[in-house]
Amino acid sequence: MRTLFLHQNFPAQFRHLAAHLARRPGAEVVFGTAKADGSYAIEGVRRAHFEPARQPRPLGHPYLRSTERAVLTGQAVARMCAALRARGFTPDVVVAHSGWGPALYVKEVFPQAKLLLHLEWYFRSRGADIGFLPADLEPSDDDRRLRAVTGNVPFLYDLAEADWAWTPTAFQRAQLPELHRRRVTVLHEGIDTSYFTPGPDGESLGRPGLDLPGLRLAPGTELVTYATRGMEPYRGFPQFMQAAALLAEARPQLHVAIAGEDRVVYGTPLGPGDSWRARLLAELGEQLDPARVHFLGGLPYIHYRELLRASSAHVYLTVPFVLSWGMLEAMACGVRLVASETAPVQEVVRHGENGLLVDFFDHEALAARVQDVLDHPGPAADLGAAARRTIVERYDLASLLPRQEALVRSVAEGLLAPG
User: Fold this and answer.
1) Do 370 and 228 belong together in one domain?
2) What is the torsional sign of CA 96, 119, 230, 314?
């Protein structure tokens, strides 16, 4: 089977699936990406590069800026595909990340190829992320709502052209117009539960100590962890920091470790020189002891895993939006999880069984839940073990890869089609 993956980043959500398909006898796998960095490679997977000819014009309508960017990306992908065709590569199936342009014109170049979309997020003006946060954290005026739903234009074109689609969670599928849901499979990308494990002392109280660059903690240290791509309201960073201040005051020996970058990944960007980290540190001031509150930045996987393993309690918060792999990776490590009582989390976490849930906005309740975990290590250990079982049973990469391969092959063979 000849497979073409399309994603602006590399390898992104297709890392494991591309490698899995490339290992099949007679397989030919090409990955088209805008990412020029060639430092990471997948054995058996050939990379092809596309690059838009220009950026969207600044004088265009702001609602259409993302659509123009998608069209420019689609043009670049079409040219890359034409070059592949000229060199003799014609895919049986194209697996494309949808909504940002790569899939737009691929059937114009490869009309006989089947198209399988990976659907990440369909924008809703109400009922999900937009309007969930108060205005002081995330402005949600009418202009933002209109701009957001207009951004679905390339996504809808992709759906019109696709033979089938898949999305990681039922919550993400529920954001789609009902017309399209009937040809969308819910199938997660998978968590490597052989890598993300509780570690050799997984039956301990979650306090094995920690030895990372810039942070060394002795065994027995109480450690509350939080991991994020960006420190932002979408992932509950303000509420976490407010809760951390309460915890630090109540427990003088407690340490707090925050992994992630000081930037906004999701939601409205702040102005130059401004950040949510700076704002929260200024607001909370002396309530946060810099000797006990540690900002670790982005971590390589091996250090990230050690942080999770050392955690006495791990916090994950999100608005109703795409669920982070990070929460599932933490659960696979057997963390004692305290998470937001929001729809994407509730799809995985059952309160009191494999984690504890709390109102997203209530930082005092969040601090109280974390204290419950710290004060009752026996029941907390049971939560961590149940969290790991959930990921092994429902999100294990080794179990999901054959299902992903079967989906790709079914689409390639025309067994799944619009109708």
Assistant:
1) yes
2) negative
Could you tell me where the beta strands, DSSP code E, fall in 187-245?
A: 210-212, 215-217, 223-230
> What is the pTM assigned to this prediction?
0.94
Using one digit for the tens of pLDDT, what is the confidence trace for 230-257?
999 999 999 999 999 999 999 999 999 9
Domain annotation covers residue 242: yes
**H helices within 124-250, ranges in order?**
142-150, 153-161, 170-174, 178-181, 237-250
Residue in the block written with tokens 């050690």: 306
Domain CATH number, residue 280? 3.40.50.2000
Q: Are 348 and 322 in contact (CB under 8 A)?
A: no
What is the spatial distance between Cα 241 and Cα 284, in angstroms, rounded to a whole number? 8
Number of structural domains found in the chain? 2
Residue 253: inside a domain: yes
- Hey, how many other C-beta atoms are within 10 angstroms of the C-beta on 419? 5
Domain encompassing residue 231: 210-394
Whether residue 248 contacts residue 287, with contact meaning beta carbons closer than 8 Å, is answered with yes
Query: Which strands sit side by side in the sheet containing 337-340, from one edge to the other?
Result: 293-297, 255-261, 223-230, 313-316, 337-340, 356-358
**CA–CA–CA angle 144, 145, 151 (5° rounding):** 90
